[in-house]
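Worked example 2:
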Amino acid sequence: MKKLVFIFMISIFGLSYSQEQPKVLKTSFSREALAQKLEDEEGKNTTIQQILDQHKGKILVIDFWAGWCRDCLKALPKAEELERNNPNIDFVFLSLERSKEGFDKSLERFNMKDKDNYWFASGWKNDFNNYVDLNWIPRYMVIDQKSSIAKYYAISPEDPDIQETINRLLK
């Protein structure tokens, strides 16, 4: 009986805290989302708009992750493979670490120092993450050469839609 209750509790907990694809797959960002501030490795503030402007004219993959996230760490080798297989594509890593110290430690621990990294000092709940319906990590988005959203929702770097979207944008 205890075993059945345990399985029931796990299934309910699992269902209520899993990624759920948003009902509306957005193709652009709101003004508020673009104004969202993040910090780079040196602690300098930047906005989503400034990050997109740095990559304008290129295809950009955004990877939401954190060093405390078991699913993110499990996906990291495949995310690195996606990056290796697409050397002409830009990748930006948006961290949801809980502190600057945690951000710095994760970058060091997971060999991310040579990547384009930012973290949400404001925390998970902010204008950008709310706008993109961020409900779990890891999460991946593909941004086209004009800074529009080409692939809104992917939960794994192995999602074939990511590569298909990149390939379509390269044509």
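Helices lie at 2-16, 31-34, 48-54, 70-84, 100-109, 127-131, 160-170. Strands lie at 37-39, 45-47, 60-65, 90-95, 116-119, 139-143, 149-154.
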